[in-house]
Specification:
Pfam families: TetR_C_1 (PF02909), TetR_N (PF00440)
Order of helices and strands: HHHHHHHHHH
Biased composition (Basic residues): 240-264
Region (Disordered): 231-264
CATH topology of the domain at 84-177 and 208-237: Tetracycline Repressor, domain 2
Protein name: Tetracycline repressor protein class A from transposon 1721
CATH superfamily of the domain at 84-177 and 208-237: Tetracycline Repressor, domain 2
Largest sheet: none
GO molecular function: DNA-binding transcription factor activity; transcription cis-regulatory region binding
Helix content: 55-70%
């Protein structure tokens, strides 16, 4: 039988011909294919066409590489989700900001894995994240909120966005590992006899506990409504009291002075 020819080997790059920037870019490319969890130094070396020692020269372990990738992910995230002042209404600004955060994570699952699930960042990007929160607090406090109310309101928006995104991402990752995997809301047994209300809601397209767009909108509206009430209450309490003019009593007429005649 004719002997099978071995496939041509991929040419190795010369040692020192790669830099950290190119390694990080290649790691993102590979993570898009295999995921962050399955990323490894040897596989990355083959993807870049370099020996694994060339990667270890800059990143001593995988965790160091993931930290560098997280810093890059946060830079991309901050650019895509920065609070803008396209509207004069604080509510519209915060609404758009929340949807930008959610959209950035849903359209790029690698950002979600690195920023939310792994959540390890360098000092520079940790400071960038703090600056974004600072701007949001300043924006809310200009509307009259106290620091505490502004902090709680923005934290609630962040938690709502991240919670919905992480739940959806974890479900997608479980489904990738097991095609038959279902989310919690998909495991509910709903029957007309035992749970008529759930059955009626399901017939109208409602899925209990699902991190879908409809539930996200409902939760976000509740947070914004509450924040709006806090702003209105603050405006009411800060209104200056109306001044009432005190009615002055008519001045008493003084008796005319008579000049004493000098004795002649």
């Amino acid at each position: 039988m004719p002997r099978k020819e071995n496939p041509p080997k991929r040419e190795r790059r010369e040692r020192g011909s790669i830099d950290p920037e190119e390694i990080i870019n290649g790691a993102f490319e590979l993570a898009e294919e295999v995921g962050v969890d399955n990323l490894s130094m040897p596989v990355l070396g083959r993807h870049l066409g370099v020996g694994v020692t060339s990667i270890y020269w800059y990143f001593r372990k995988k965790d160091d590489l993931l930290s560098a990738m997280t810093d890059r992910a946060i830079e991309r995230y901050n650019l895509a989700t920065a609070l803008t002042y396209s509207s004069d209404d604080w509510r519209e600004r915060l609404y758009e900001h929340a949807h930008a955060m959610r959209g950035a994570f849903l359209t790029n699952p690698i950002l979600c894995d690195l920023i939310l699930i792994r959540s390890s960042r360098g000092p520079r990007n940790a400071q960038l994240g703090a600056s974004e929160i600072e701007h949001a607090l300043e924006d809310l406090m200009r509307e009259g909120l106290s620091l505490e109310d502004a902090y709680d309101s923005y934290s609630a928006v962040q938690l709502h966005v991240r919670g919905s995104v992480v739940l959806e991402r974890l479900y997608d990752k479980n489904k990738a590992e097991d095609a038959g995997a279902q989310a919690h809301h998909g495991n509910l047994i709903i029957t007309t006899a035992q749970t008529p209300l759930l059955a009626e809601a399901a017939s109208k397209g409602r899925v209990g506990g699902a991190p879908d767009e409809q539930i996200f909108e409902y939760g976000l509206t509740c947070i914004l409504d509450h924040t709006s009430r806090l702003i209105d209450e603050q405006k009411q309490t800060s209104k200056p009291a109306k001044r009432t003019r005190a009615t002055k009593a008519p001045a008493k007429k003084s008796a005319p002075r008579t000049r004493a005649k000098s004795a002649s």
